[in-house]
Design brief:
With about 375 residues, the chain is an alpha/beta fold. The longest helix is centred in the middle third of the chain and has 22 residues. Helix 7 crosses helix 8. It is elongated and about 70 Å long. Helix 1 links the parallel strand 1 and strand 2. It has 2 domains: about 190 residues, 3-Layer(aba) Sandwich (Rossmann fold), CATH 3.40.50; about 140 residues, Rossmann fold (3-Layer(aba) Sandwich). Helices cover about 35% and strands about 20% of the residues. The protein binds 6-O-phosphono-beta-D-fructofuranose. 6-O-phosphono-beta-D-fructofuranose binds next to strand 12.
Length: about 375
């Protein structure tokens, strides 16, 4: 393929997930070898673009990284150039540093910048595209909450880790006649809890899309115990909430692109179940374990395909777009479409129906 690209930039933004390095490799390798193009790695996400933390990548930088988790470029969820947190004598102030980012983009003579990230990153990609910069987005996140793509890479790896954890917890829970509550990440979407809950055969799945009733959860585990089941597994999404109650927030940090850090619902669910049913209960919070380690083969393949199409799209000069999986094809969509709304679990989802069909309770 012919291309006018002479210099492209790559950055990874937001929380990391397995598969980021696979995308970097599938952009940088052909860019260097087929297009004879310089590839500039922007370090620590958009923070690096604002602060000028950038360096040219060599072929050896992007070799042998396919199966390695994290990101060789580093990332940050605190560097939104349009709302950049700065320490001042008056405390932390959030200022617009986008001019600084534009300056670094121009100083490095970037013909295109491919930003790999989630919802927050795509909002920034959209804003820079509106300013006339040549941005392309690649959707990643374990949460799978981005619109305009069937799935994001990172999700399959997170579900795989959570499923293995549930498998392991089943045996110890059963040995001790216990209820085991497993809290997983996912922000305001229940995809990880639903995927891992189905794959791991959880008895109760609690997701943000279906506010739950405490009594229903107690009833379900008590009934299971009465019927002689030695244990119950409850897979709860960090964003799940009772119908009469609120989401559990761990921390508010205004330096973050999304200031709200969720976490803690697992402990609440565990405590209330033990108090109300008398069944011995333990809580496991999987947290960042879901984001670590090697990507699954599915994520390696998807990430590689996403990277290849992102580079082709840059070569065609089709900017302001995000690569996306639709059915079996990787296509591109205007990045605007990806940020219209969060991709949460539809209530009529076949995932939910099939889980209910095998007796899984959603606490509703
Ligand atoms: O968006 C990915 C994610 O892992 C969410 O599931 C979670 O709520 C959040 O990031 C955690 O962020 P941090 O790594 O800043 O604690």
């Amino acid at each position: 393929m012919k291309s006018n690209l002479k210099t492209i930039g790559i950055l990874t933004g937001g929380g990391d997930c397995p598969g980021l390095n696979a995308v970097i490799r599938s952009i940088a390798n052909p860019a260097m070898k087929e297009f004879d193009c310089r590839v500039i790695g922007i370090l620590d996400g958009f923070e690096g673009l604002v602060e000028g933390k950038m360096r040219e990548l060599a072929s050896h930088d992007v070799t042998g990284i396919l199966n390695i988790g994290g990101t060789i470029l580093g990332t940050s969820n605190k560097g939104n150039p349009f709302k950049f947190p700065v320490e001042t004598p008056r405390g932390i102030e959030v200022l617009d540093y986008s001019n600084q980012a534009v300056k670094n983009y121009r100083n490095w003579n970037l013909d295109a910048l491919i930003a790999i990230g989630g919802d927050g990153t795509m909002h920034i990609v959209n804003k820079f595209s509106e300013l006339g910069l040549n941005f392309i987005g690649v959707p990643k996140t374990i949460d799978n909450d981005l619109s305009a793509t069937d799935v994001t890479f990172g999700y399959d790896s997170a579900v795989s880790v959570a499923t293995e954890a549930i498998d392991r917890l089943q045996t110890t829970a059963s040995a001790h006649h216990r209820v085991m509550v497993v809290e997983v990440m996912g922000r305001y979407a229940g995809w990880i809890a639903l995927g891992a809950g189905i794959a791991g055969g959880a008895d109760v799945i609690l997701i943000p899309e279906i506010p739950f009733k405490w009594e229903k959860v107690y009833e379900h585990v008590l009934l299971r115990s009465k019927h002689g089941n030695r244990s119950s597994i409850i897979c709860v999404a960090e964003g799940a909430k009772p119908s009469e109650g609120n989401i559990v927030v761990k921390e508010i940090d205004n330096k973050r692109t999304d200031p709200v850090r969720l976490g803690g619902i697992g402990d609440l669910v565990g405590r209330k179940i033990e108090e109300s049913t008398g069944l011995e209960t333990r809580v496991v919070v999987l947290g960042h374990v879901l984001r670590g380690g090697s990507p699954t083969p599915y994520d390696r393949i998807l990430a590689t395909r996403f990277g290849a199409v992102a580079l082709e799209t840059a070569a065609e000069g089709k900017f302001g777009h995000m690569v996306s999986l639709r059915g079996t094809e990787v296509i591109t969509v205007p990045v605007k479409e990806a940020i219209l709304e969060l991709h949460t679990v539809p209530l009529d989802s076949q995932y939910i129906k099939s889980a209910r069909a095998v007796g899984t309770d959603f606490g509703d």
